[in-house]
């Protein structure tokens, strides 16, 4: 029998919760109507997605009219950033984001810079990978219309000071968007407390399927839509509503917050177990995850070896992790996130991310520590840098 | 993404480790770029009688190093100099396009080790 794969790459994607799959089922084959259709089958679907919207709004502490369903986290980021930048460009064409954003944000802002005449500034991060608020303030100009800073970093798990950034943005009359894709299910998504105007979420990071996202957009802000078509999602996101997936993402978000404390305690304990195991058993390591981080993420560099060789060796033992090494991404530059933290190139090439979920067990972590030590020892014997 | 041959050499690399008193050492690449390869050779009567490598790098870099040591062991200096990165790729049953530079590094490594050997040989002869 094939051994179970130990999945420690939950910041990449997650297993869909069985309860989410069950919830979605009937919207494929029973309640399959188009929510815009006026007969009962359509209206039942309409009721379902409006109910989903209310449940999401409750978790985000906002009005249901401020929740928009999209096709992904990337789409939500694009809609918020391009939509607001283009809409308010008469007021100004300057955008602020950070050096450690996901490419969904970074490349979107770069595109606006290259193709549409916008200017942008990147906020620096400190050695812990947390944005420098003083630097952020110094970058604000009279023509700044948008700040987009992520809530939690995907590679290191570092939590960003969103509340404070929101306050700064509000004082200066600048719109504030946060990519909260890695925060969902791990941190509070209360948009009022967080002072955010827009927030992006992605279903598959919290046990919903791939291909569905959420954009929270405060009423009163009017991004220009990315697509043009029907009147769906109040014209902001034309496309027939993806009813089963909307039901899935709402269910998954609800589970994540109903069971929040339970999962937080369990996963944090596993993270600490992994951390102690690595630090006790393996020498020559650099911790890339700060104290103030989401409870599931742990990132280390293992000196003298390259991340991809660790990844493939762990795969041989049935363990899945990821690396910030350039060798896997196809570009020559290693992780822009670890680089932004001021780490040496070689350290960036050596980084490995472990991201846990509610489905991991203590046995899996014990096995991972044991195999990781074997793998590191083996590859270091091949390396000119033995430690 | 990798051929079976690549994985085989990555899992059980041939001829790795440091060599005591090598006749030539080639050090190419650097950890800043994500890979560094050190090739050590022992030469008798113009024949590479022993070879070892140490590599900091990805799966493809380690596999390229390993197969390269197999390719040059027992070869004359002239024969070894004729080995190109294409030979390395072919012997490995192919490499993903973005990993071609690993095979180039291996070719450079052989050349650097042989250069070092020839330089030392010349110095000895002059003394």
Automatic annotation (TrEMBL), chain A:
Its EC number is 2.8.1.7. Its cofactor is pyridoxal 5'-phosphate. It holds the Pfam family Aminotran_5. The keyword Iron applies. The keyword Iron applies. It catalyses: (sulfur carrier)-H + L-cysteine = (sulfur carrier)-SH + L-alanine. GO terms for molecular function: cysteine desulfurase activity; iron-sulfur cluster binding; metal ion binding. SUPFAM superfamilies: PLP-dependent transferases. This is cysteine desulfurase. It comes from candidate division TA06 bacterium 34_109.
TrEMBL record, chain B:
Transmembrane segments: none annotated. Residues 1-123 form the NIF system FeS cluster assembly NifU N-terminal domain. Signal peptide: none annotated. Gene3D superfamilies: 3.90.1010.10. GO terms for molecular function: iron ion binding; iron-sulfur cluster binding. One of its GO terms (biological process) is iron-sulfur cluster assembly. This is FeS cluster assembly scaffold protein NifU. The lineage of its organism: Bacteria, Bacteria division TA06.
């Amino acid at each position: 029998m094939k051994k179970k794969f130990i999945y420690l790459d939950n910041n990449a994607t997650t297993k869909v919760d069985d309860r989410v799959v069950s919830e979605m089922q009937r919207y494929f084959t029973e309640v399959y109507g188009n929510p815009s259709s006026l007969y009962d089958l359509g209206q039942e679907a309409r009721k379902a997605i409006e109910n989903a919207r209310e449940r999401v709004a409750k978790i985000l502490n906002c009005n249901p009219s401020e929740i928009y369903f999209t096709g992904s986290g990337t789409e939500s980021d694009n809609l918020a950033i391009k939509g607001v930048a283009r809409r308010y460009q008469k007021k100004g064409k300057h955008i602020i984001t950070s050096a450690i954003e996901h490419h969904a944000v970074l490349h979107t802002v770069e595109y606006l810079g290259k193709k549409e005449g916008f200017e942008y500034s990147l906020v620096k991060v400190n050695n812990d990978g947390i944005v420098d608020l003083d630097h952020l303030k110094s970058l604000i100009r009279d023509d700044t219309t948008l700040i987009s800073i992520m809530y939690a970093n995907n590679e290191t798990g570092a939590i960003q000071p969103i509340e404070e950034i929101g306050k700064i943005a509000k004082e200066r009359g600048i719109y504030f968007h946060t990519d909260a894709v890695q925060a969902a299910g791990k941190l509070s998504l209360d948009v009022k407390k967080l002072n955010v105007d827009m927030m992006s979420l992605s279903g598959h990071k919290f046990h919903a399927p791939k291909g569905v996202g959420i954009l929270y957009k405060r009423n009163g802000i009017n991004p220009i839509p990315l697509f043009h078509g029907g009147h769906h999602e109040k014209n902001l996101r034309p496309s027939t509503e993806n009813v089963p997936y909307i039901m899935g993402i709402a269910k998954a978000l609800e589970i994540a917050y109903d069971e929040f404390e339970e999962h937080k305690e369990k996963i944090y304990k596993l993270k600490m177990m992994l951390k102690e195991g690595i630090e006790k058993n393996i020498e020559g390591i650099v911790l890339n995850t700060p104290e103030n981080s989401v409870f599931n993420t742990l990132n280390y560099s293992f000196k003298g070896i390259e991340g991809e060789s660790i990844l493939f060796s762990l795969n041989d033992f049935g363990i899945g992790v990821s690396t910030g090494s350039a060798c896997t991404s196809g570009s020559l530059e290693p992780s822009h996130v670890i680089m932004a933290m001021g780490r040496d190139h070689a350290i960036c090439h050596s980084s490995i991310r472990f991201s846990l979920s509610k489905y991991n067990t203590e046995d899996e972590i014990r096995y991972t520590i044991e195999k990781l030590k074997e793998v590191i020892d083996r590859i270091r014997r091949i390396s000119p840098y033995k430690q | 993404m990798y051929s079976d041959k690549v994985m085989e050499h990555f899992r059980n690399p041939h001829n790795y480790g440091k060599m005591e008193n090598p006749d030539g050492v080639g050090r190419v690449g650097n950890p800043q770029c994500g890979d560094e390869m050190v090739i050590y050779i022992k030469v008798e009567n113009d024949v590479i009688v022993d070879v070892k490598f140490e590599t900091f790098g990805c799966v493809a870099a380690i596999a390229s190093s390993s197969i390269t040591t197999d390719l040059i062991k027992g070869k004359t200096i002239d024969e070894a100099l004729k080995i190109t990165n294409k030979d390395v790729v072919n012997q490995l049953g192919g490499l993903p396009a973005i990993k071609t530079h690993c095979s180039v590094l291996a070719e450079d490594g052989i050349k650097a080790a042989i250069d070092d050997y020839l330089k030392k040989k010349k110095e000895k002869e002059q003394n």
